[in-house]
Amino acid sequence: MATPPNGPGNSKQPEKNPQPLIPKQYSFLWFSAAIFLMVLWLQDDGQTRLQELAYSDFKTAVVNGQVSQVTLKEEEITGQFTDSGNAAFSSDSTSQKSAESFHTIRPPMEDPSLLNLLEEHQITIRAAPSGLPWWQELIRSFLPWLLFLALMFWFWGAAQQRLTQGGNPLSFSRSKARRARKETSTTTLDDVAGIESAKREIAEIIDFLKAPEKYRALGASMPKGVLLVGPPGTGKTLLARAIAGEAEVPFYSISASEFIEMFVGVGAARVRDMFQEARKDGPALIFIDELDAIGRSRGAGLGGGHDEREQTLNQILTEMDGFESHENILVLAATNRPDVLDSALLRPGRFDRKITLDRPHKDARAAILKVHIRKVPLAPDVDLEQIAALTIGFSGADLKNLVNEAALTAARENLHEVTSHCFEVARDRIILGEVSDAHLSPEERTAVAYHECGHAIMAYYLPNADPLTRLTIIPHGMAMGMTEQTPREDHVTYKESYLRDRIKVMLGGRCAEKLIYGEVSTGAQNDLKEATALVRRMIGQWGMSEKIGPLGLNIGEEHVFLGREMGMPREFSEKMAEMIDAEIQAQLLSMEKQTLDFLTEHRDQLETLAKAVLEEETLSAEDVKGILLKE
């Protein structure tokens, strides 16, 4: 029910948590300013209300009988005028209308005649002690230190309050895990698509938490830990949020990096606190995102281990070992680097079950698109099956971004529905990047055209290469041109013939430049880098070399730990390394020669295609096919 507005007959609700007159964070500054003004007032001994006299004028006033009494304090002399002196000096004063008292400074040299002069004219003489009163001296001595200590405690308290989110120093080691409630969790398993096997696994776990008696009657026990493994964007965190929406049990969510602090032992204390809270609310679920932040192998790298991270990991291992069967505590963790996790985490009894989430296939991509377009008005020409076929390699997060970019494109063009053209523009923006403002000279533009046409001809004629989709010389992002290929279907494994044709397509741009200009340019830098890395994996990891043989080495595998490979035994000798390098060079030279010979045979088609793309800037696969068939 909506709350009625305030009006006649409706009492106005009192304001909650009224703001204080002085903000809490500024109270210390106001207090310091008040003390400073008080010290200034204490130092004000009334000198601003005295008539300033020169020492010679003072002695003249004494001789003329215009001084009634004086007070001597080191070199300072204060006193009072007689009636005649008051009238005389008040008439000369421009700063004050009446001056009953005066003040003067005696020169630093001694004046023995001053006392005799004062006694001769019967002037009352008083003496004042030097310095300030004892209580003022005490305040002036200790006040700066008190202010300094108060300032330090204030800053320390503010820092502790930010760190502990409550201002209590004892809560510094409290867990930062967020507890999700079913009432506030809007994501369910219906919002998760394309990972049906993972959903079945999770549904079984949720059912166990809701009705554990059914499983215990058969002697089954729930796994202590479930590890979600997959590349970024495949739905690991989304699946965890769906569990929070489906499970009718407390759900604690935290990122592994939130355990780590600069103080050793804080992470372990937070782990203990989190598991204690979960045991109180059991049965419960604990979700740890990015587990590799604290679960990496202990003692790795040149500098040894990280004390805080390793203590936190040890505490997690201890807590998972301490689960009892009646507690029903399940730890759910997600990572995209299972290869760097400590082996103690992955043994049975801790993370018993591993759920792998891979990039979705065509049908899964179509299902994911249907989830993300629920609130998007689509035009009749949008075919989700076709979009799914053109987005091979897209993850769930990429598809969500694709739908969002298409909607933004439609809004930018003032459309009421998202059309197929909007999806094409969004896909180009994601794959190729935004259209660049790079200005190319005519010579550079022609060189880019020959380069891209070399790629296109190789992609068109090679039987095992991915089909050509589009050819453009419009700069996108960092690329001055683009030859786009779309695989016919999703690949799980790759044949050697496919990989070799793929490398020849990469070398086609460089060979076209060499054929036309007799030299190469820097435009093939990325092509050479990818081709060399692919050949290295073919030879070192997949055994695709007759000379090297069927060896599976760790060539091309990069460790995330500095120096880890130094501590591992080497799998091959220096002689084998030289043979591998020589074989990589030999295969690249051989495939370059084959590519150059092929383009030489089709030089007329290369030049015709280059002229066409210079005129049109962008050619579709049908356009390229029509041009090549005419030659």
The CATH superfamily label of the largest domain reads Peptidase M41
DSSP, total strands: 14
> Which structural category fits the helices and strands?
alpha/beta
> Kindly, what is the distance between the CA atoms of the first and last residues, rounded to a whole number of angstroms?
75 Å
Considering DSSP H and I runs of 4 or more, what fraction of the residues is helical?
A: 40-55%
Unreliable stretches (pLDDT < 50, length at least 5) are 1-25, 92-98, 164-170, 559-567
Rounded radius of gyration (Å): 42 Å
Largest sheet: 6 strands, mixed
- Strand content range: 5-15%
What name does the CATH topology of the largest domain carry?
A: Methane Monooxygenase Hydroxylase, Chain G, domain 1
Shape: elongated
How many DSSP helices? 23
User: Architecture of the largest domain, CATH level 2?
Assistant: Up-down Bundle
Structural account:
The protein has 631 residues and is of the alpha/beta class. The protein has five domains: 85 residues, Signal recognition particle alu RNA binding heterodimer, srp9/1 (2-Layer Sandwich), CATH 3.30.720; 39 residues, no CATH class; 179 residues, Rossmann fold; 70 residues, Helicase, Ruva Protein, domain 3 (Orthogonal Bundle); 189 residues, Methane Monooxygenase Hydroxylase, Chain G, domain 1, CATH 1.20.58. The chain contains 23 helices and 14 strands. Helix 1 runs antiparallel to helix 5. The longest helix is centred in the N-terminal third of the chain and has 31 residues. The radius of gyration is 42 Å and the shape is elongated.
